[in-house]
């Protein structure tokens, strides 16, 4: 049972909000510096996000949101679920939480100096462990759900690349099968796989990639764009071959199609953000043919359009699916030239009655998520995933 906070502790935490607004990124940067003094703890994290500063800023925002809502934690339910799912992907275990507590409290004391009174440090210690108890409990539930299924596992498992078809210019799929030959737990359509590249020679490199295949018990397919400066994607495109071994934790992520969707579906993607939505479309074509569906995709050009044949075949099997594609250049007809717009969506899809699933680069999401909200779409019908730390806010 998660511990509760006293009214005095809640008041102290809320009183620290101005300090967090001013010093939050410095506190989280200091926290990670302290935490990574232990190489074993440092190895748990995605160091690419540390180098870019993205994780430091995302955590600062999450800590600030926690302090602001310390007396209304229900408002943080989705953020807590995202955090728990990320921890499953990176194999974060209960024994790792004390290390973070020590580093966080030490960072608060170091950055705030004399302003970090014993009362403030004690209050933040209590607040940290309340949240930690919630996360540990939820992570235990997720792991129990995974391991109760045939093919479920925890921690890292070795996989072999068995196929690598080129899907479009700069985009290749990688089919991963377990080295031990055993079955796999099927992913929920929309979830990602976390890869660790140590056994392939990239020590400490980890990445999350959405699964683009239909859920099954034999393999996972990841469809990956070669990114300029992307250590993992460049390795996969340029060096990984059939037979290359990688490690993965079980599928994770809170962005997925529910088991029994109740409303029409609008699936909307930008660029290689189509990967989780293709998996959703495949499932809808198999299990939810009673629900009208719109699949709307925008990309730079026909040459960079991956998985189009698979999308159109799945839409045909569904029977009530409409596919619309937009190209910034190279379109062969006027209807597909340009970019997706809110006006087009409002005129051609049942936005007010639908559940909308979006995935794409940050500019794509920063345009459409607030735009849909302004158009009157209820927030609980807008579901999104993008490339980068999921704690960044798009709807502000």
Contiguous low-pLDDT stretches (5 residues minimum) are: 388-396
Rg computed from alpha carbons, rounded to a whole number of angstroms: 22 Å
Number of strands: 12
Distance between the termini: 33 Å
Quickly name the level 1 CATH class of the largest domain.
Answer: Mainly Alpha
What is the fold-level CATH name, i.e. the topology of the largest domain?
Globin-like
CATH architecture group name of the largest domain: Orthogonal Bundle
Secondary structure tally, helices: 13
Order of SSEs, N→C?
A: HHHHHHHHEEEEEEHEEHEHEHEHE
**CATH superfamily membership of the largest domain:** Globins
Mean pLDDT: 93
- Major pleated sheet: 7 strands, antiparallel
Helix content: 40-55%
Strand proportion: 15-25%
What structural class should be given to the helix and strand makeup?
Answer: alpha/beta
Shape: globular
Our count of domains comes out at 3
Task: Write out key terms for the chains shown.
396 residues, alpha/beta, Globin-like, Elongation Factor Tu (Ef-tu), domain 3, 7-stranded antiparallel β-sheet, 13 helices, 12 strands, 17% strand, disordered C terminus
Topology:
Blueprint: H1 7-15, H2 17-35, H3 39-42, H4 47-52, H5 54-68, H6 77-89, H7 97-112, H8 118-147, E1 157-163, E2 166-168, E3 171-178, E4 192-196, E5 206-210, E6 220-225, H9 231-238, E7 245-248, E8 265-270, H10 275-287, E9 293-299, H11 308-318, E10 321-327, H12 342-348, E11 355-360, H13 362-374, E12 382-386
Parallel strand pairs: 8-9, 8-11, 9-10, 11-12
Antiparallel strand pairs: 1-3, 1-7, 2-3, 3-6, 4-5, 4-7
Helix pairs in contact: 1-8, 2-5, 2-7, 6-8, 7-8, 10-11
């Amino acid at each position: 049972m998660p511990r509760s906070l006293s009214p005095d502790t809640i008041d102290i935490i809320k009183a620290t909000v101005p300090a967090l607004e001013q010093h939050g990124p410095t506190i989280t940067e200091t926290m990670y510096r302290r935490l990574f003094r232990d190489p074993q703890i440092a190895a748990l994290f995605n160091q690419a996000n540390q180098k870019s500063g993205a994780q430091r800023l995302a955590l600062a925002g999450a800590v600030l949101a926690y302090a602001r809502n310390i007396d209304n934690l229900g408002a943080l339910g989705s953020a807590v679920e995202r955090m728990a799912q990320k921890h499953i992907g990176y194999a974060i275990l209960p024994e790792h939480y004390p290390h973070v507590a020590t580093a966080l409290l030490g960072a608060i004391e170091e950055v705030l100096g004399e302003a970090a009174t014993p009362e403030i440090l004690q209050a933040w210690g209590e607040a940290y462990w309340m949240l930690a108890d919630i996360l540990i409990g939820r992570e235990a539930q997720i792991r129990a759900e995974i391991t109760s299924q045939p093919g479920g596992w925890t921690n890292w498992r070795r996989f072999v690349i068995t196929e690598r078809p080129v899907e479009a210019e700069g985009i290749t799929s990688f089919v991963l099968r377990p080295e031990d030959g055993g079955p796999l737990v099927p992913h929920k359509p929309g979830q990602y796989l976390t890869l660790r590249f140590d056994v392939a020679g990239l020590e400490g490199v980890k990445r999350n990639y959405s699964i683009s295949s239909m859920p099954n018990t034999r393999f996972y397919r990841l469809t990956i764009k070669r990114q300029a400066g992307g250590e993992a994607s460049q390795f996969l495109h340029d060096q990984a071959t059939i037979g290359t071994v990688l490690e993965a934790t079980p599928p994770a992520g809170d962005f997925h199609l529910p088991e029994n969707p109740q409303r029409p579906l609008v699936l909307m993607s930008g660029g290689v953000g189509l990967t989780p939505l293709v998996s959703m479309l495949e499932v809808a074509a198999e299990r939810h043919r009673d629900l009208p569906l719109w699949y709307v995709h925008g990309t730079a050009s026909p040459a960079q359009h991956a998985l189009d044949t698979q999308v159109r075949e799945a839409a045909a099997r569904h029977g009530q699916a409409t596919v619309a594609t937009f190209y910034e250049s190279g379109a062969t007809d006027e209807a597909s030239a340009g970019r997706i717009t809110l006006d087009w969506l409002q005129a051609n899809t049942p936005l007010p009655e639908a559940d909308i699933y979006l995935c794409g680069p940050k500019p794509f999401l920063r345009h459409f998520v607030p735009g849909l909200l302004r158009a009157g779409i209820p927030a609980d019908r807008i579901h999104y995933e993008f490339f980068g730390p999921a704690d960044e806010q798009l709807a502000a």
